[in-house]
Q: What sequence folds into this?
């Protein structure tokens, strides 16, 4: 099984969490893309989807799945998305695909967050994957200084503008022992829109693809 086979298997396992007749939240990235492709097979059984990025919206639209504006809904039953790292408390680093802010917003409205990953993403301590931080363009220098003061090595992601018109700074060299506190600390830097730690709203279920099959962690 290669990594794409693992991603496809876990994405297909997540289809069991999709309730009939409802609007669901859909994430971003290569694993989420496999989920979208699987969702297309049951598109007549759901009302539609809220996408966490323009890229996922385009893929959902191409499959004929109706898109909804989050502002027209009060709640989503489920949100399905991948992660760059996840720990055994189901706290995550996300944003490798630069969609972290919209992902965090959609996740906040969902009753259940189902994270879909291959086993390479499961870690003891978050931080090996450089932490993505979405930043207002005029604040990149000031935010870079503040992130350095927190002990990280920040680097502007070259050539990337988010769906919200902002920049991404990736912060390497972190060992995030208290994800909730660090999420709040980074978010309190003026000019930061949000950062890719999902600890205040972790996943509720982790579906983890292994060579032996899909494991479920809660
Ligand atoms: C996008 C994300 C993705 O969920 C994360 O980068 C994982 O992507 P992939 O499934 O391609 O490994 O947070 O912003």
A:
């Amino acid at each position: 099984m290669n990594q794409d086979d693992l991603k496809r298997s876990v994405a297909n396992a997540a289809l069991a969490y999709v309730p009939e007749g409802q609007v669901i939240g859909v994430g971003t990235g290569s694993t989420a893309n496999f989920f979208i492709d699987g969702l297309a097979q049951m598109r007549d059984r759901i009302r539609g989807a809220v996408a966490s990025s323009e890229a996922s919206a385009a893929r959902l639209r191409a499959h004929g799945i109706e898109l909804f504006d989050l502002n027209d809904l009060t709640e989503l039953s489920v949100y399905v998305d991948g992660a760059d790292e996840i720990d055994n408390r189901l706290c995550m680093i996300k944003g490798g695909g630069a969609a972290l802010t919209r992902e965090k917003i959609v996740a906040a409205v969902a009753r259940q967050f189902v994270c879909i990953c291959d086993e390479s993403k499961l870690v003891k301590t978050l931080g090996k994957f450089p932490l993505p931080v979405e930043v207002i363009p005029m604040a990149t220098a000031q935010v870079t200084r503040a992130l350095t003061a927190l002990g990280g090595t920040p680097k502007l992601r070259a050539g990337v503008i988010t769906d919200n018109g902002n920049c991404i700074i990736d912060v390497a060299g972190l060992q995030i022992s208290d994800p909730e506190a660090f999420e709040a600390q980074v978010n309190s830097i003026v000019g930061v829109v949000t950062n890719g730690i999902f600890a205040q709203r972790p996943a509720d279920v982790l579906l983890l693809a292994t060579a032996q099959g899909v494991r479920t962690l809660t």
